[in-house]
Amino acid sequence: MGLLNEQVALITGAGGGIGRGVALSFAKAGAAVVVAELDVESGRAVAAELQALGARALFIKTDVSSKRDIDAAIQAAVDQFGGLDILVNNAFAPTPNVLLEDKTDAMLEKTLNSTVWAAWWTMKAALPHMRARGGGKIINFYSIDTEVGAWLHGDYNAAKSAVVGLTRSAASEWGRFNIRVNAIAPTAMGATFHKLAAENPGFAEHSAALRPLGRCGEPEEDIGPVVVFLASEMSRFVTGETIHVDGGLHLPGYNSRPADVPAREY
Q: Element (H or E) spanning 182, and its range?
């Protein structure tokens, strides 16, 4: 018996990287999975992977910065599989890596829409369906970048801080509906990691060396099981938590100052 048998899950941004890893882990644990992904090709490919494993899976093209798309994806999960038990908010839309003084209002708006507003919309849309099932599990994605004040990510850091606040508020208020709400702060070898590794010789080795465990994470093998834990009855008494899933990177942290930025400017 799988840990998530008879459970219905919706995962945003499940077309690649960590989202795909979580989707594969969920499928192997017995869940029906809705792949809520903007990229049609990758979304369909992941849904096909899950079906090849014997899982029930559905791809729904979803722009998480659109409330209409989110409402449609949640409704599709209910229509196709009869309800919704698990929500994983993973997707976000990146903006250019520039200094805080060069970040624009448009960049901040894009980031807020794809993280804070996306989580707000999905959680609100999922609520009545989870209440109808007698409870549910919500897992939001946070980031170590916020904790170290990562350079060039000012808008992202601000948005992820808000996601933690939303997670804690929902955990406090929705516990009365038997809905558990937690966050994870993962780092793994997703698409961005592989791009940086290809462009910067030695990046992968340096990244691994920063972690007390001495290696970088795998989306499915390292991140997926933690999300399965939070989505299963193994975590029935856990809510309002933020769990680092990063090989211990949060202990030493990291310095993200670009090499070409002087220490003092006037």
A: strand 179-186
